[in-house]
Amino acid sequence: MMKAFTRAFVMGVVLVAASTPLAAKTAEDISKERSVVMKKMDSAMNEISQRVGGLFAFDKKVIREKAEQIREAAARISTVFPEGSASSQTLPVIWSEPEEFENKIQKNIAKVDKLLSELESADKDKVKNLYKGIHFACTGCHSSFRK
Ligand code: HEC
Fold this sequence. Notes:
binds heme C; 6 helices; single chain; Four Helix Bundle (Hemerythrin (Met), subunit A); mainly alpha
């Protein structure tokens, strides 16, 4: 009996923890999540850059793995900029022009998908260009939406 109660109690705690609504997160929590997402993409971009730039061997397996990490993080961008989560590095246009912001998110995703779908048959120069396409999608958003 006691055991069942304990189990039910623990389950309850787990459920409450798992269903904490987004609104319960502070702007600081969100800002940290955002930072994780962006830094993950940044480090994966560096790994790709080193493999198309000659520092390391041109290894498509690693490039694909890194591109997949970027793809995963890129899909999370839209979830880490809820209203009321402005930081010292965000511009208010993120929330006053949400369609524009969403366009930049989709553009980034499209460029990563392009690299993923063309990687297999692409030579090094082509992969370098596909990489640059992603890079410009990053800076394209930063120049309009980041301080
Ligand atoms: C849709 C817009 C958008 C796209 C696309 C985007 N970023 Fe960002 N990024 C931002 C904004 C806005 C910030 C500032 C967020 C903050 O500090 O609150 C930021 C911050 C960053 C930071 C600083 C993180 C920190 O905490 O120091 C890095 C690094 C970064 N982005 C890398 C990238 C890379 C690499 C890509 C592309 C693969 C990318 N971003 C794509 C909007 C974007």
